[in-house]
Structure formats: C-alpha cells, structure tokens
C-alpha cells in the first residue's frame, strides 16, 4: 500500500437540484415528477502540498468504499477553472476565463498563489499551448448585508487578443484544466436560436401554427 495522506481540510455541501426523475412504479408505468427534494452531495478535500502529477491515489470513505485514480494535471478538469462552455466569438472584444473555489463548510479555497502566475490556452487538436497570459485578481468576495455572495475570491484570465477559431481549454499549472470550449463565428448560434424560439412560444395574442411549431395553439 502507498503512503497515507492526511487531509488539511474537509468540507461538504448538499445542493438542491430539482432534477426531473423517472421513477419505476409497480405498475410498470413510468411517471415524470419534479422532485424539489432531489439533491446532490458534494465533498471537498484539500491535501497539504497538493496532488502530485502522475501519481496514483486511492480515496477511501469511512464506510470502506474506494475510488482509485491517477492525477494528471494537464488532463484532469478542475471545477475551479471556469470558462464559457458555450464558446466565444473570435472578434469578441473581451474573452475571459476565471478561477475561484468554495469548499462548502470548508470555506474559501485559497488561490492567492495564482495572482501573477501564467495560464495557457491549449489547442485540443494538437495539444500545443497557443496562448499564454498572466492571471490577475478580479475581485474579492463582496459582502451584501453581511452575507458572502459567492464564498470565493475571483481571479481572471484575459485571452481577448486570441482570435483563432478552434477547440480549446484553459490550463493552469498547479490546478489543472478547464472544460472544453470553442472559438467560432457560430459559437453562440444555438443559444440565440433557443432564446428566440422561447420568445416565440411565450408570445401572447397570436396563433402558433403547425408549420412553425409542434406546440400549436390559437390566439
């Protein structure tokens, strides 16, 4: 067995998700429900010195369940590295990614080491670092009526000058990578379509005809 690692912090959070469920009933007839009680459970652990790239780890719960994984810094997605997963327009005047972390009952994830450090845009077709920049402090968590808004300090990564279309992700040494995103002239096309279709279906005082929609109605 490998060496045991003591966690520096353990946080947890239970978050309502209001997920649509398809339960199985004795009759065999499924029924969609909107269960406001549906929740997701999150556990947050911090390790002194961080995880080591390429090293194998096994996480063992208090009831004996195990999860084994190999930590690969440039491959593992970090939820603390945040991008617009819909995508960015090449000629958009401003393009940003952000970093910030909140550990539920564990409080704010200290990312102060990021300020002034480098980040990279990685081309997913070649694996090359095609753009780099310095990480800057965006804003410390604000206070509204003495309650924290996000629970985290936000750091920004400005890649506005980068305009080459393609599929990319952000890589932050010491943290990991972001989810994938696209830079494309039609990056927001689907969002625009869904939004305008929503406006059409929400309109009052007009008929919605079969040649335009499957959800027809009179005036």
Relevant terms:
33% strand; 219 residues; 1 helix; globular; 6% helix; single chain; 5-stranded antiparallel beta sheet
What does this molecule look like?
6% of the residues lie in helices and 33% in strands. It is built from one helix and 17 strands. It has one helix spanning 189-202, and strands at 9-16, 20-21, 33-34, 39-46, 56-60, 66-70, 81-82, 96-99, 118-123, 129-134, 136-139, 143-144, 147-148, 154-158, 166-172, 176-177, 181-183. Strands 9, 10, 15, 16 and 17 form a five-stranded antiparallel sheet that branches. Strands 7-8-14-11 form a four-stranded antiparallel sheet, with no helix packed on it. The longest helix has 14 residues, at 189-202. The model has no long low-confidence stretch (mean pLDDT 86).
């Amino acid at each position: 067995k490998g060496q045991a690692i003591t966690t520096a912090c353990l946080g947890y959070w239970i978050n309502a998700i209001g997920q649509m469920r398809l339960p199985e009933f004795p009759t065999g007839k499924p029924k969609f429900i909107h269960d406001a009680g549906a929740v997701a459970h999150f556990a947050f652990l911090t390790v002194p010195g961080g995880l080591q790239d390429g090293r194998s780890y096994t996480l063992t719960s208090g009831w004996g369940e195990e999860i084994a994984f190999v930590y690969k810094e440039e491959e593992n997605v970090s939820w603390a590295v945040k991008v617009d997963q819909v995508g960015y327009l090449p000629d958009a005047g401003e393009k940003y990614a952000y970093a910030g972390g909140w550990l539920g009952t564990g409080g704010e994830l200290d990312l102060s080491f990021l300020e002034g450090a480098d980040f990279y845009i990685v081309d997913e077709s070649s694996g090359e670092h095609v753009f780099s920049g310095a990480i800057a402090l965006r804003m410390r968590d604000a206070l509204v009526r003495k309650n924290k808004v996000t629970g985290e300090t936000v750091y920004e990564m400005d890649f506005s000058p980068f305009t080459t279309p393609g599929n990319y992700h952000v890589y932050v040494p010491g943290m990991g990578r972001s989810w994938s995103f696209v830079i494309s002239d039609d990056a927001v096309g689907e969002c625009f379509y869904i939004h305008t279709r929503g406006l059409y279906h929400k309109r009052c005082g007009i008929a919605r005809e079969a040649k335009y929609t499957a959800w027809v109605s009179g005036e």
